[in-house]
Amino acid sequence: MKSLSKIFARYLMTALMIILVTLFLNVFLYIAAGFRIARSTNRQASSSREIAAELQITGGKVSLSEKGYAFLIPDYAWAMLLNDSGQIIWSWRLPNNLNHSYTVREIAVFSKWYLDDYPVTERVTDYGLFVVASPRDSVWKYNVSDNVAVIDMMIGMIPVTLIVNIVFVFLLSLLLGFLFYRSLHAIAAGIECLSEQKPIHLPEKGMTEMLARPLNRASDILSRQKERLEQRDDARTAWISGVSHDIRTPLSLIMGYASVLKEDVSLTEERRQQAAIIELQSFQIKHLIEDLNLTSKLEYEMQPLRPAVFHPSGLLRKIVSDFYNQGLPELYLIELYIDPDVEQMTLNGDTALLERAFRNLIQNSIRHNPAGCTVTVTAYPEKGGICFQVSDTGCGIPKNVIQSLEGILPDTEKAPHIMGLRIVLQIFKAHGWKMVFSDSRTIHILYLPEKESDEKRTSLFGALGSALFKASNPRKMRTNTAESEN
Q1: ∠333-339-342 over CA atoms, to 5°?
Q2: Helix segments in 388-418, DSSP class H
């Protein structure tokens, strides 16, 4: 669940960043707006001052210079000049309803508010009170006055209010993040259970409702599929076990009668050879049935391993010597090369299964090379582990067989018969070993201690080229039959 903590931390960091960015933008906008308002106010005040400065006496009358009109015409609706008695002594575009004398009360009112909805600005000059009006609805005008202590208190409350708002938004983000974290925690736990093939039922509500619903559907589908697969596998295992049991009794009778007929001197040599062939093929059928049972158990992990500490050099010598002692035809030769460093090394594994795997590899080379061949078995240390190599000088393994074992070709009815090699692969896989086909005639079996890293394991595969050179190096020891028996 560490990933959820990271998500929650990133959520809080994002929320904090949003708060800071929003705060910065607000401050920037307020400052910009304040400058704009102040600039507009100052512009209006300076403009009215500049216009008033252009008033002059011409022919005993007050007039405005052309420069003053240049200031007045673009931005203002009308203008007038009042003397001390409230009489209009000069005007410009003054509406008829405003063309009259003004009392002190009227002047006091429009100086604070509006004159006939016109926002007006007043300026005291040497000629009287200069009044200039902006167009209606163009300027907001409001007379504000307040206690200085209240204004100071309001200014002091601004940073406090800002801090309170930031804390409130942060706590709100924290609360929402916690609720989101709790919802995601249930989703993450559900996904973890799905990865372990366990059924789940998540609550379909809240922010994760859209995620929980498909996960529950997926769990139901996987549960049904698992149940069907288990039923199919149980039926398959029971069928294989039943067929094997039913075949075992008649097969024993066939082998027994074939053995008797083979030794019966009253029969012709041809008949006895036919009985020997029947016995031999019956043994093949018996081995196939055993292989079928074993591969089924290994595939569904029903074959318990019985690990024990053993010397791999001794195991290989026993296997090779058994082939010779059981009557290896003269067409075949088995050579065993063991590096001196491997002699004292020990491994932990099921010796019965491992012996069967190595025996199957050697037997596979003998079976598929009826014209004879030399089988070479090599063992040498590599990166703290052992690399076993089994090769022959025969026809090699067909390409489609290697591709089937590596999973490149699909396992269909037309797939090649690879029961023996499949069992070998499953046995080594059950022990955590790797089986690699460097070419059609050479198989490498790699064992690395569990402490070795994946990086070293990869480098070991890269060292297979040097392994081929080591297989023919003089420092390897040849073990013959006499040595094996010792």
Answers
A1: 115
A2: 399-405
Determine the Cα–Cα distance for residues 374 and 31; give it in Å rounded to an integer.
Answer: 93
**pTM for the model:** 0.45
At which residue do the structure tokens 């890293």 appear? 453
pLDDT at 465: 37
- The three-point CA angle 371-467-437 to 5° equals 55
Work out the number of other CB atoms within 10 angstroms of the CB of residue 128.
Answer: 20
**According to DSSP H, which parts of 300-432 are helical?**
312-325, 351-367, 399-405, 419-430
How large is the C-alpha radius of gyration of the chain?
A: 51
Q: Give the number of other CB atoms < 10 A from CB of residue 217.
A: 10
Q: How confident is the model at residue 368 (pLDDT cuts 50, 70, 90)?
A: confident
3-state secondary structure (DSSP) of residue 419: helix
Question: For residues 393 and 471, is the Cβ–Cβ distance under 8 A?
Answer: no
**DSSP H or E run through 85:** none
Render pLDDT for 169-178 as a digit per residue (tens, 0 to 9): 778 778 877 7
Cα separation, 156 vs 74, whole angstroms: 42
Nearest CA to 189 out of 207, 201, 179, 175 is that of 201
Q: Residue 351: what residue type?
A: T
